[in-house]
Amino acid sequence: MNDSLEFDREHVWHPYTSMVDPLPVYPVASATGVRIRLADGRELIDGMSSWWCAIHGYNHPDLNAAVRAQLDAAAHVMFGGLTHRPATDLARTLVELTPPGLQHVFFCDSGSVAVEVAIKMAIQYWRAVGRPGKHRLATIRGGYHGDTFGAMGICDPVTGMHERFRHVLPEHLFAARPRARPGEALHPDDLAGMAQLLAAHHQEVAAVVLEPVVQGAGGMWFYAPEYLNHVKALCDRYDVLLVFDEIATGFGRTGPLFACEHADVEPDILCLGKALTGGYMSLAATLTTSRVAHGISQDGGVLMHGPTFMANPLACAVAKRSIDLLFENDWPSQVSAIESQLASGLAPYAAFPHVRDVRVFGAIGVVQTRDPVDVAAMQRVFVEAGVWIRPFNDLVYLMPPYVISPDDLERVTKAVGLGLDAIR
Ligand SMILES: *Cc1c(COP(=O)(O)O)cnc(C)c1O
Fold this sequence. Notes:
The protein has helices at residues 2-11, 49-52, 61-73, 85-97, 111-128, 149-152, 188-201, 226-238, 290-297, 313-328, 331-346, 375-384, 406-422, and strands spanning 28-32, 35-38, 43-46, 102-108, 136-140, 173-175, 205-210, 214-215, 221-222, 241-245, 269-272, 284-289, 355-361, 364-369, 387-388, 395-398. The protein is of the alpha/beta class. The chain has a 7-stranded mixed sheet, with helices on both faces.
């Protein structure tokens, strides 16, 4: 094991890390339920769902069975000129569960690519209907939409981690993120920002792209859902498409199946990923309306995208099973139980002098510190306490698997306190 750890350190890149001075990594032997077992035998209770994905826990018998059954049929076939039941069954389910206007599904291989496809759909649409000048994007600060170039262009220009690519990214339009939290009334500035931006630039704007209600890796900010109604009205007024990136929020994380349901707003284009396969495989989807799909397709037009592993059958089969499992498990009660336990478990930390803010929304809990934390040091404390939490910048955040028990969740929220003590 030491051998392979050594090799890993020298040769294997981890996300956002140096190849000269990498942060420590912990070798995993297996994972079952909400427990990740390290190679040295220690067990960690998972507080991260492997970045929003493993909502039913690891090594789930039903999800394993879905993969195995599909493995005996076909692990993969190209999607050009061929189709298969796992893809059509999953597409039918997504069309049924998402807002009614969304009728057309493009499967791709990761969240970032789903965002690229959404951008292409928006730009191709306006070009096809004779308004090629509408090719810029508008969004709010504090967003995160992925690591590929199109997606990077709409990440927060400062916290979005892509500042160093600014000189090669297209210049899009940014309004301030809404200050009002869920339950608060929108501030006049919240309304003015996007209104002014679209009033000035709508002739060149193809789409507004937003993470509805919960902004993820750009800062873990939760905002008032009414902002979505406001932006929707502006989009209607100025002939701008509305894209919702629900790659993090989709599949129940914020309570309803999709976060846009908090505001009852339908987007023209919707991106899904992360929890789509219950954390088993990389799969994402971009859905759109008949207006956009038929617009792009008029006069022989085609959507210009087609990844090699598009609609991988193993991934589609496990995604379908994972969605069925959500309903069987009554995810709204799972999520609301986690929400109240996170709220009470994290509340005491708001009094710590080095904590700036504690916030909880759905099955997401955030403790924001005044200064960036020492990730390696904090992580060591968490591992010693038997939990897996990966802080980022000034954010110690939790999004546990929906199947976590109250006892295990209590260990996770208590460990947050130990981690915060360690960096006082
Ligand atoms: C993670 C994430 C992405 C990117 O997805 P990948 O699968 O990592 O490419 C895009 N948008 C949001 C909101 C995300 O949370």
